[in-house]
Here is the input.
Amino acid sequence: CIRDSPYRRLEAGVGWFSEEKLRVSAAWQHRNLLGGGRGLRVSGMRSDLYTNLGLTTWWPAIWSTPSTLFLGLSHRLEDEPGYYERETRSSLYLVHRPDPKLSRRGGIAVSYVTLDDRTLEAPRTSDPDGLITRVFYAQDRDDRDDRLFPTRGHSDHIELEATPPDLGSVAHFVRGQVS
Here is the structure.
């Protein structure tokens, strides 16, 4: 007999890292809060160096059965010895899973970033505070026969990310990764 997992989920975590020391996290998720499989997730994480707060909602089968549209909002604080960074981000992306072994993600993320330099050197002159608009695409294929103890097959990951000049970003970059 196959049964759905519970719609609601509560998570808590504790970790220890050499730089951050103690890290605690918590999340609450409801997989059908808005009906039709549309859900909501609220999450947070805190350590000596980082604070993250997030809110994500999703709509399955937005265009077709194997696709899900995600909308996320997050706020991140990074309190390093040399700088203090704040980022508020909104993201919209589509996940398409045409089969269980293949996943594609593509979307856009818009962030507002501020950075306070704490070094005694001359103040920075490049990459001012402001808007960063990223477009991204990622694809994962996993053909392994077993995810924990594979004996054959392979797992591939491709990721591309860019901040096109026409979208108003204060900093521009292109990043790619293949593994």
